[in-house]
Specification:
Keywords: Allosteric enzyme, Glycosyltransferase, GTP-binding, Magnesium, Nucleotide-binding, Transferase. The chain contains 6 helices and 12 strands. By secondary structure, it is an alpha/beta fold. The strands form 3 sheets. Strands 1, 4, 5, 6, 7, 8, 9 and 10 form an 8-stranded mixed sheet that branches. α1 runs antiparallel to α2 and α2 crosses α3. Bound molecules: 1-O-pyrophosphono-5-O-phosphono-alpha-D-ribofuranose (PRP) and uracil. The site of uracil has 9 residues, from α6.
């Protein structure tokens, strides 16, 4: 069973409150999502392996740590996942970025893949799939399934808000994929929206409604 890590740092929780607020305008929404993505990247990289190297300080020789060769990839689910990429790149500027385009049908709630573009060495990287919302889990499962079909084996999922249903769906379909969320909300409504959630993440990020 995969781990569910709820990133409950006070700064993340504070910013998430204003992301949820319906009166937060597009510009602020985008900035807040970017900031929370940076803070969550700090949590998601907590177990990255380190090597010890020797470094000369001005006064002595020190044995000190550097990140070992493990390479990262960020894979946003379009559209809304795009809003989390730059925030992660601030901490991990050497990461490569792949893109998966998925659109959820408003009635059936089933995702359709319309775009996929991965770094050529994606199979050698630890991939962080990012999307603000994990609702039914259909989009995240399709994205992870698509990556696995292309030979990717090391995958983590990072979302802002998850529903209990979405967490269960990913854990059942992909027990090897750890999930990082800033919050797990109460439930899904009959339209497949997370309650209380934040509304439509893509529309709020890009001002399309
Ligand atoms: C939203 C959201 C997720 C998906 C979550 O995207 O950003 O990708 O729905 O729902 P699920 O867990 O039930 O699959 P949407 O399909 O609305 O596309 P958009 O980002 O282009 O608005
Ligand atoms: N997609 C969203 O953008 N919001 C939800 O609450 C559910 C799916």
């Amino acid at each position: 069973m995969s781990n569910l890590v709820v990133c409950d740092h006070p700064l993340i929780q504070h910013k998430l409150t204003f992301i949820r607020d319906k009166d937060t305008k597009t510009k602020d929404f985008r900035e807040l999502v970017d900031e929370v993505a940076t803070l969550m990247a700090y949590e998601i990289t907590r177990d990255m392996p380190l090597d010890t190297i020797t470094v000369e300080t001005p006064v002595a020789t020190a044995q000190s740590k550097v990140l070992s060769g493990r390479m990262l990839g960020i894979v946003p689910i379009l559209r809304a996942g795009l809003g989390m990429v730059d925030g992660i790149l601030k901490l991990i500027p050497a990461a490569k970025v792949g893109h998966i385009g998925l659109s959820r049908d408003h009635e059936t709630l089933q995702p359709t893949e319309y775009y996929m573009n991965l770094p050529t060495d994606a199979t050698e990287r630890l991939l962080i799939v990012v999307d603000p919302m994990l609702a039914t889990g259909g989009s995240a499962n399709a994205a992870i399934g698509s990556l696995k079909k292309r030979g990717c084996t090391q995958i983590k999922l990072m979302v802002l808000i998850a529903s209990p249903e979405g967490v269960r769906a990913v854990q059942e379909a992909h027990p090897d994929v750890d999930i990082y969320a800033a919050a797990v909300d109460e439930k899904l409504n009959e339209l497949g929206y997370i309650i209380p959630g934040l509304g439509d993440a893509g529309d709020r990020m890009f001002g399309t409604k």
